[in-house]
Amino acid sequence: MEKYTVPLTPSTTQNPKPIPRKQWKRSLTELNGKFVPKYRHHLSDLFMQSFSQIGAFAHSYHIGGVPCETHVSWFVNGGYTENPCPFRKQGVSALEFDAKGIYLASATKLGCLTVHDFETLYCQANGESTCLKEDETKHLLHISTRCQIDVVRWNLSNQDEVACTSTRSSELRIFDIGYISSEPVEVLRLRPTVNVHGQGVHKGLSDVAFTSNDDSRVLASDTQGVINVWDRRISDLPCLELSTNSNCALNSIQLNAENQIIFGASKNGTIYMWDLRGGRSAAAFQSHKEVCNSPLTSMKLASMLEKIGSLKAQSNIYSKEIHAIDINPSCPYQLGFHLDDGWSGVLDINNFKVTHIHCPPPPWLDDSSYSSDISYLRKPSWLPTSSIYMVGSSSNNGVHLLDFYPDPSSPCHVDYVDDIEGRTSKNMQRKQNRFLPLSESVTACAAHPLNGTTIAGTKQSSLLMISQRRQSCQEEDDCPPSSKQDS
Questions:
Q1: Closest-CA residue to 349 (of 411, 425, 263)
Q2: Is the entire prediction scored with pTM above 0.90?
Q3: Residue 192 CB coordination number (10 Å)
Q4: DSSP code string of 38-105
Q5: Nearest alpha-carbon partner for 207 in 185, 190, 223
């Protein structure tokens, strides 16, 4: 019988090669306990579609039992009606969350500085009550500075401090939210400047930045093209000036995560970069004398946009005012920018190239009588984890949700190719941006640093809450099977 048996051949390998199997994304995500960036981008369409306006809070606040200036202006201009009068000198000018998303600081053109409790706003917007009048007793701070406010920032190293200033003022006021007082705890001032005729030159402040590792260092850009740097331990006057070598105003500044590089965006469409490490910059903080430094490099945004062949073939490119710049919190080499005509994009600060661009139709296509309002600098916001840029529309009541994922699969990427056949074979959805209609025209956005809920300030001084609408499990159980499938 042995001659009929097949001899057993010894195995050449002790560990046979496993059969490759395609990984199931959802299972992998559950096992890792976190969303990888590509999986987040895979769900970005569903994520953007889940956003809606869930609440609107009018600025009907009081100070000492008397309506504040913004409240009075809102009432006089008919803000309580469906068709209010045009708002010229009011509206929300700036918004910012603190690092943990507990408090929201808001400022209006008429000088009201308010610190809101975010949890109170969120619970009220998701409640069953139809009245969305904010509970003023929950305000941590509400004061009238009696002067225009264009920017508000939290001190990253001391979250009890919030700073505000204006292009009409040469003073940077710092308030401590632990003290209910209309007087700032500290005022930083610009050095006086005179022209060749011996006359004083007005310099206002346009933006503020705090370092995350030192609560004594403050930076602020002015209307003469200079970033002023204070050391609060030494003096209330700047100890260092970072100059653009131009008198054109800087609208926005942004520090990188390491507090080593600062970017500035000017009114003439140029982005500047200064290195705060080493050389004269480092020595300046140890000296009582003022030192002036030139930028490390400067980039004309229009010149970089002209290098995008598909864009240059479709539109005339010229220098435009940059309203704001922001570094993507989930991708630190992406510097988002927004222009005065509504264009938005991304500058890759590793190779100094524009990688993403979004060009909405010009406003005059929809309304021939449209005229841009130069009194508002629109301030966008990155969502914390999804590389989604949220910016107010320049012509309509609403916001654009822009997919700026750092990959050619983003619909805004300059190398994006819409491969319909390949997408169908892989059962993939087409990535696209979304326009979210809102009840009022948006001037500024601020995204919660943890959950992505966004607060939008409007020209009517209201606060609009944009988030996923809450739905209870009991309501889902009561729904018929057909309605569950559609949702």
A1: 263
A2: no
A3: 10
A4: HHHHHTHHHHHHTEEEEEEE----EETTEE-HHHHHHHHTTTTSSSPPPPSS-SEEEEEE-TTSSEEE
A5: 223
